[in-house]
Design a protein that fits this description.
The protein is an alpha+beta fold. Helices cover 43% and strands 23% of the residues. It contains four helices and five strands, in the order ββαβααββα. It has a three-stranded antiparallel beta sheet with strand order 3-5-4. Strand 4 and strand 5 (73-77) form a beta hairpin. It is elongated. It starts with 8 loop residues before the first strand and ends with a helix.
Length: 90
């Protein structure tokens, strides 16, 4: 039998118990916990949220007019992006 350390699992310790969680599940939980109510995201985070490449996310954000640039930091408005994407719903 394969040990849990060799699987695609993450070890989570809450002090009393140890839990083994699949990496994909852990990633989804972390994204959902950190992002509710977020109005702006950076390119990499947005690409992960929408399950697309960073290049595709940048282009869609540009087409949606959802990019805000502050000095060297670029943020994407999730609200504007979602409104734009709704136009393509089938």
């Amino acid at each position: 039998m394969e040990s849990k350390e060799n699987c695609d699992m993450i070890r989570c310790d809450d002090g009393n118990k140890i839990y083994w969680i699949p990496r994909t599940t852990f990633a989804k939980i972390v994204l959902e916990v950190n992002l509710p109510g977020t109005k702006f995201v950076r390119y990499r985070t947005g690409a992960d949220m929408y399950d697309m490449s960073e290049r595709q996310f940048k282009q869609i954000a540009k087409d949606a007019g959802a990019i805000y640039k502050i000095n060297r930091m670029v943020l994407v408005s999730i609200e504007l992006l979602d409104r734009y994407l709704e136009c393509f719903r089938m």
